[in-house]
Amino acid sequence: MMADEIPIKPVITFDELRMKVEKYVQSDGMSYVEAIVDICKVKEIDPVDIAKIIKGPLKDKLEAEAMERNIIKRTTAYLV
Asked: I need a labelling partner for 57 at 20 to 30 A (CA). Which of 10, 21, 24, 26 fits?
């Protein structure tokens, strides 16, 4: 790194995003989608950009919620 370069800090890290989303879902009763969109508005982040850091259990919960609401097709069969 050159001496005149300024380190760029991300607007939000994955861990910060995960904690904020879980807080909104648990304490405010928001859905995962609503929580992520709200965080995007507050932090002035394009949802397309935030999608790049959503992974692991948070992504799984978001997908499960979307399947439950018939936003995306179910990927696996399940017993009712």
From this structure: 10
Taking only the tens place, the pLDDT of each residue in 37-50 is 999 999 999 999 99
Amino acid at 33: V
Q: How far apart (Å, rounded) are the C-alpha atoms in residues 64 and 73?
A: 10
Amino acid at 23: K
Q: Is 77 helix (H, G, I), strand (E, B) or coil?
A: coil
The neighbour count for residue 37, using CB atoms within 10 Å, is 14
Question: Read out DSSP for 35-70?
Answer: HHHHHHHHHT--HHHHHTT--HHHHHHHHHHHHHTT
* Residue 78 token pair: 């399940």
* pLDDT digits 0-9 by tens, 59-76: 999 999 999 988 888 776
